Amino acid sequence: MRPLVLIPARGGSKGVPGKNIKLLNGKPLIQYTIDAARATFNDNVICVSTDDKKIKSTVESLGLEVPFLRPEVLATDTATSEDVIKHALKFYKERGYQADTLILLQPTSPFRTAQHIKDALTHYNDNLDMLVSVKETKSNPYYVLREENEQGYLVKSKVSNAKRRQDVPTVWELNGAIYIINTRSIEDNSLAELAKVKKFEMDELSSHDIDTVLDWKVAEEISKMDE
After folding, report:
1. Superkingdom of this entry's organism (predicted)?
2. For tag attachment on the chain, is the N or C end more exposed, with fewer CB atoms within 10 Å?
């Protein structure tokens, strides 16, 4: 395996301003992901992709080099994860390192550990397009989710005749913590088009993702649990 570990960290967070370097129990949020990555991979294959000089400075204060600042076109709300991935792969390829496996670790998942990453890697092989971390969803589309039809009435999001929640199929929710992507698979395809995708299951606590102020407050309580 020739890995590239990508930690995408844009500066312009709206839900929790400055969240990637905001202190969570005394540590910048991004440090949790960097520490997990460094316990699994060498620094020279870990890339923090950011457009923000403060994030770059914080990461480099931890002893990890940030190889570039993202171009402005990749620092907008419309820039996609796929754009950021392909930019990083191209950057390293032009410098002589062609990764065959891209490990994407979002800094908003502070409770994903090095052990999670190592365990996920054991489930990955190069016959897959992608391995992605998931949790069992509470918002099961067979049972609790509804959509409005053309008449404005609520209808089941996914039809089932089950009478009890226990009788509907298990549905998995992407938790955003770990994506292991075959770089060959995304040369000519978008992430949404990948077909050979398998899951790596994580528990709800480890899956916690920070997007809102409420998510941050929950994370603060979780981070105190191991004290």
Report:
1. Bacteria
2. C
Residue 159 lies in a domain: no
In-domain check, residue 165: no
- Quote the CA–CA distance of 217 and 104 in Å, as a whole number: 25
Residue 161 is assigned to a structural domain of this protein: no
Two tokens, residue 42: 């060498």
Instruction: Label residues 69-87 b or e (16+ Cβ within 10 Å = b).
Output: bbeeebbeeebeeeebbbb
Range of the domain at 208: 3-135+171-222
**Contact (Cβ atoms closer than 8 angstroms) between residue 131 and residue 102:** no
Residues 108, 210: contact at Cβ < 8 Å?
yes
Predicted confidence (pLDDT) per residue in 6-34, tens digit: 999 988 777 788 999 999 999 999 999 99
8 A C-beta contact, residue 105 and residue 33:
yes
pTM: 0.91
